[in-house]
Amino acid sequence: MSDQRLVLYTDDFWISPYVFTCFVGLHEKSLEFEAHPVALQRKEQLEPGYRDRSITGRVPSLDHAGFRVAESSAIIEYVDEVFPPPRHARLLPEPPKERARARQVMSWLRSDLLALREERPTTTMFYERARAPLSAEGREAAEKLVRVADLLLKDGAVSLFGDWSIADADLGFMLHRLLLNGHDVPPKVRRFAEAQWDRPSVMAFVKRERPPLVPY
What we know:
Elements (H helix, E strand, L loop, with lengths): L5 E6 L5 H12 L5 E5 L9 H7 L6 E4 L2 E4 L1 H11 L13 H16 L2 H6 L3 H4 L9 H17 L13 H14 L7 H11 L2 H7 L10
Parallel strand pairs: 1-2
Antiparallel strand pairs: 1-3, 3-4
């Protein structure tokens, strides 16, 4: 089963942080896959053909030889189990405590910092930069993000756990909502975030050609 065809269903504009996670994960695994854009602006994810196969009608989803799974965290755990080391790179840390911490970071990034996600959306990372200053709520979220990153990172570290994990990419992506929009962050945190942005798997996502943005 592990050698059969993989299709990653993505957003049209390649701005979804969750598509980013899966795209980077598949690249880090050195897995060949087909990318199939879903036009969220036309609500294609709600059409029965896509919705029912993905179960929840969400993007991204991954098709592996006819098995479809959605939600980026579930996709990452699936490919990490189905395409394990040593043949393929590990996406989540092996030690249970570090693996739990990585899952904690990823869950937190998906469920908190709403004001920052709203005021520095991913469109400001890949299309037009933000013009308005952060609101009080946005500043509070930004400060929380930086505080957590600073707390987790050892001095000089460019990964959370020694060896790289997909949680590093996710945290680096969130921090770039600030960096790309001109916000200052402490040198330790900036060094970490920029190291993530320089990874070939991440650059493959960042440098993708994108069509003109249509809001959705």
